[in-house]
Specification:
Layout (H helix, E strand, L loop, with lengths): L1 H19 L12 H5 L10 H7 L3 E4 L1 E2 L8 E2 L1 H13 L3 E2 L2 H9 L8 E7 L3 H14 L3 E5 L10 H9 L2 E5 L12 H19 L5 E3 L7 H9 L4 E7 L11 E5 L6 H9 L7
Parallel strand pairs: 1-5, 1-10, 2-3, 4-5, 5-6, 6-7, 8-9, 9-10
Length: about 270
């Protein structure tokens, strides 16, 4: 009798295992295939439309030198680290024409777009910044007061910079606060600068930077009348689709911008201010 009961119990166990599937517990294997399938899938990459809506950081550099207490200056070592960070993390510097096309809605953005700009035309832009940019193959834009060419940089050096991938654009004629000038004085600053840059560099200068960030409605009108397509300010933030192309924001770069701060400025349109 006992033997019959034993055989019957064994048969029932075999049938139960066959119906329910083999399910042995082992340490570290608590999840069943059905439970594992319930894990959320990896999020898809951001769409091209989402990237367009996010905007483009336009980086604003001035002098590259050794003035640790001046945040309009960045040390050569930190500047080099910034540029290497851009290259190593897959950022794509845009030319001014590409930024213009982005605002017009006609450019398919490359991965991680960024714009690199320099103001004023310091000697170190040629001697320090340009070799780094050439080595890494990075495009950039220099905004220079045309009336000051010959004081720190020569026309021949500007031609070399242009040939190496650094666009040369207008920072007015004599670097005066345009918003404080009459319309006639502003026109002279804008027109004389364009004439010199066009003539000596054999180009059609269409990109502008406001000295001290100063402008008014007369400035905007005059820039449009004389064929300028883009102008940048000192206002902080990213350039976004739909922005006025003559009042574009930029992202300040100086000694205070560590690599961590650079990362924030490159990945967050609402980056924290220092």
């Amino acid at each position: 009798m006992k033997k019959t009961v034993f055989y019957a119990a064994g048969l029932l166990l075999v049938l139960a295992l066959a119906a329910g599937g083999w399910r042995f517990w082992q340490p570290g294997h608590e999840k069943l295939p059905a439970e594992q399938a319930a894990k959320p899938a990896a999020q898809p990459a951001a769409s091209a439309e989402a990237e367009r809506a996010a905007g483009i950081p336009v980086l604003m550099y001035h002098s590259v030198g050794t003035e640790p207490d001046n945040d309009a200056v960045i040390s050569p070592e930190l500047f080099t680290a910034h540029m290497e960070y851009l290259q190593q993390h897959g950022f794509t510097p845009l030319a001014a024409e590409e930024l213009e096309a982005y605002l017009a809605g006609t450019l398919k953005l490359p991965p991680r777009p960024v714009v690199i700009t320099f103001d004023d035309g310091y000697r170190d832009t040629y001697e320090v910044a340009l070799p780094v940019l050439k080595r890494l193959g990075l495009k950039s834009i220099l905004f220079i007061p045309a009336g000051e060419v010959g004081r720190r940089l020569s026309w021949q050096e500007l031609r070399e910079m242009k040939a190496a991938g650094m666009q040369i654009a207008s920072h007015s004629f004599s670097h005066r606060e345009l918003g404080a000038l009459s319309a006639g004085e502003q026109a002279e600053e804008i027109v004389r600068s364009k004439e010199l840059l066009d003539g000596f560099l054999e180009q059609d200068t269409r990109f502008f930077c406001y000295p001290y960030g100063s402008y008014n409605q007369d400035t905007l009108r005059l820039l449009r009348e004389h064929g300028f397509k883009l102008a940048v300010t000192l206002e902080p933030g990213w350039v976004k689709s739909g922005d006025n192309p003559l009042t574009l924001r930029r992202v300040w770069m100086g000694n205070s911008v560590t690599l961590q701060h650079l990362h924030e400025r490159l990945t967050r349109a609402d980056y924290p201010m220092l």
